[in-house]
Amino acid sequence: MVRLLEGEDTDRMDALSDGVFAIVLTLLVLQFQVPDADATGVPAALADQRPLLFSYLLSFAVVGLYWIVHHNLFQRIVRHDRVLLYLNLLFLLTVSFLPFPTELLGIYGTHFTWTLYALNFSFVGLSLTLLWWYAYRRGFTDETVDHRTGRLVTVRGLISPVVFLVSVGVATVSLSLAFVTPILIVPLQMLWARYYERGRE
Amino acid sequence: MVRLLEGEDTDRMDALSDGVFAIVLTLLVLQFQVPDADATGVPAALADQRPLLFSYLLSFAVVGLYWIVHHNLFQRIVRHDRVLLYLNLLFLLTVSFLPFPTELLGIYGTHFTWTLYALNFSFVGLSLTLLWWYAYRRGFTDETVDHRTGRLVTVRGLISPVVFLVSVGVATVSLSLAFVTPILIVPLQMLWARYYERGRE
Amino acid sequence: MVRLLEGEDTDRMDALSDGVFAIVLTLLVLQFQVPDADATGVPAALADQRPLLFSYLLSFAVVGLYWIVHHNLFQRIVRHDRVLLYLNLLFLLTVSFLPFPTELLGIYGTHFTWTLYALNFSFVGLSLTLLWWYAYRRGFTDETVDHRTGRLVTVRGLISPVVFLVSVGVATVSLSLAFVTPILIVPLQMLWARYYERGRE
Amino acid sequence: MVRLLEGEDTDRMDALSDGVFAIVLTLLVLQFQVPDADATGVPAALADQRPLLFSYLLSFAVVGLYWIVHHNLFQRIVRHDRVLLYLNLLFLLTVSFLPFPTELLGIYGTHFTWTLYALNFSFVGLSLTLLWWYAYRRGFTDETVDHRTGRLVTVRGLISPVVFLVSVGVATVSLSLAFVTPILIVPLQMLWARYYERGRE
């Protein structure tokens, strides 16, 4: 049976992953508390929860982006073995943990909670990049993925974890600055893709 | 890899969306609290939660209707690019936020909570209409969608957000009237479709 | 677009329904509370929650059986229109509400909570039978479903709601007897199928 | 209709199972509590929750492994009857119950809570092995599964429940030793597969 474990399709890996992503995206809203106030006090009580809105939206955006990346990578990964299943579970572990640091950050908003939050997102990015690198090295990708594309995507996948790690350092100087650091991820990824393409010609 | 992102199938977009819809529909019931009363006090304690039933049923109905619309639109959308993935995530953001204003409305039932609730549903409708409009303009729809159908569906999609926005105004006059305003959505959509069809001949 | 709503496949209806079933089956466990006791008091504190185990297992079993029935019916339903989508949402509404009366019953175990619980399950059965009846009458079923099978399944679908309604009456005499009444459902369904088959020859 | 219940595809069984697995994997994080402390007390308050991390990671790993096994087995199971649907529901019952003993173990970490936890995982393994054994005996597996593979997988499936049962005994001597006993599962499964393969030649 051990040998039977290498299979052609990745449909159920997609299904499990989509399930985890859908639940994480939806659980994030549970951090908002219905205030225990009288009717006139509700607007003020909700205004107190505004910091939660920042961590909620940031988490939703980053998780959403990672769903797109996962979706994108698995369009090219057409075979798997047992190790790839493990690596996908490791990735889902990091994703499914996110609601906890998101709520911590939303409530406390300290340097310490930002560190936990940024580390969690770093692990998300690192485990997905590891998964891609393994799939590409083992030849589980389809024929559209050549050597250069394999490397391009691997390096691109490291940009997001590095930015989150840098943001932990930035947070020692200014917490507000650290909060906006993740905005750098998308332009940096584009720059890297352009730079790499140019070197190709 | 950037260019690889335009793909033919929308299967996993469907899967993620169905997951979020299923979870939102099921989470809505969590707003009901098992009362902390002795056995004889349970009927009275549950009767106190009756207002929650209204917001529960309204949310279930509107979310269910939007699932039908999403299902319907994606039967015609057969290609996607990165922007469409973003727009679908934006739509899911608005859907996944719904349990919070639903519970707020059910507990407080004030003009303020109705405003939040109606605004959230307006964003749901606007983001889905934006998604459709983009897909149609970029030619991601199948051959059954001609110019007229594209416009018909776009305008029809704006009816629901407009009705919810109008209901915020209605709520300044009468809250009970605002609560029943959404009933107008389905007949208004039918009227518009009929009017448009007639102009076609 | 209105006419476009009649479609061939029921894949996404399956997907949404499976999602709601999976979440309801998993949410049921959330009614169990980690006791707030010291380490030696845990066994006793858990023993206090034994009544919850009954309502948990009964709900899991009945929801599971309804998933099988839904799965079974949708193997024969191969087309749909807008009304069928509505009827499926109505069915999912009744299913997704179940965790609440399940917890109420597990905690209070009174005649009143059994009534709520049994009524909820009656609505589950009635809405699914209505859905089947509509699909069969509109000719949305495949060629293996003839007139007799259509009626056989419709009547069989009414057995479970009737048993639950009867159990509400039984509960006025003996609550324990009411709790075991649902066991009658499976043998009664078999009897009806056998009786109907015999009449056929 | 009763006879109609034997079907060719197992797609929706996969879908329901993937849904339950995805939700269980994601619900496990809900056991972590956002501490009710001032900002400086957060690191210490989180450190108090470290035991939860052990039960969280162990549960995630074992549930993940069982998803892989389920995924693997259902690649070979190509037909089903009503009994197989029941056995799959029984398996999902044991899986969906896991968050509760996981949280109990994480909070109390006593011999009693380990017993509950290990028993639950034993039931997970036993019900899945029963499911496999039934499918194989009824000939629902594909042509790659011969008599020897059928037996190999059945016996292999019993290793995990036996290890968990043994760990309950181990816990009477040393709780820490019991916690690491599950590590034996994977090497023991490999040893068994190797031993069986050798006897084959």
Briefly summarize what is shown.
The structure is a homotetramer of 201-residue chains. With 201 residues, the first copy, chain A, is an all-alpha fold.
Number of helical regions of chain A: 9
Characterize the biggest β-sheet of chain A.
none
Largest interface, chains and sizes: A-D, 33 and 35 residues
Oligomer: homotetramer
Our Rg estimate of chain A from Cα atoms comes to 19 Å
Count of the separate structural domains of chain A: 1
Shape of chain A: globular
Name the average pLDDT of chain A: 89
Task: State the separation between the terminal residues of chain A, measured CA to CA.
Answer: 46 Å
The portion of residues forming beta strands of chain A comes to under 5%
Low-confidence segments of chain A: 1-5
The tally of beta strands of chain A, per DSSP, is: 0
Order of helices and strands of chain A: HHHHHHHHH
List keywords for this structure.
homotetramer; 0% strand; ion channel (chains A, B, C, D); transport (chains A, B, C, D)
